[in-house]
Amino acid sequence: MYQRIFVPVGADESSACVVEEASRLAAALHARICLAQVVDTSQFADDPLELAHELRLSEAEREHDDRRAALHRSLEARAQPLQAAGIETDTRLVEKFGGKICDAIVKAAADWKADLIVMGTHGRGGIRHFLMGSVAEGVLHHTRIPILLVHDTSDDD
């Protein structure tokens, strides 16, 4: 059965129901979890041309390192309750520069040798889905790894 469960999470707490579902599954199966957060490093660059200047580059690198460290601390904090419950847990900050989030998730899950991806979906439809796209749908179409989708009810009206 599933022994390596890859769980992409967001920066906010909306992923709590996804982590909870993954932890129940991992506990039942004695599986390992990898909590992963994708961060687009291009967001750290205000203006790529401006970054070419040596001084500005070093400032941007320090700011990026500070943000990276904060994200690592956040992932580690999310992993602590899982580890306390006896679930082996890895954390991974997946950095990408441009491109699609779904592609970064698919690659990171494959690199970690996941045999299941557990991720959230907002269940948006219609124009909201068209405008915002669906990371879950992108992952579904680009991976051969089985996926368990957990409906995120945190922003339901």
TrEMBL record:
The keyword NADP does not apply. Belongs to the universal stress protein A family. Keywords: Cytoplasm. It comes from Formivibrio citricus. This is Universal stress protein. Residues 1-151 form the UspA domain. GO terms for cellular component: cytoplasm. SUPFAM superfamilies: Adenine nucleotide alpha hydrolases-like (SSF52402). It is found in: Cytoplasm.
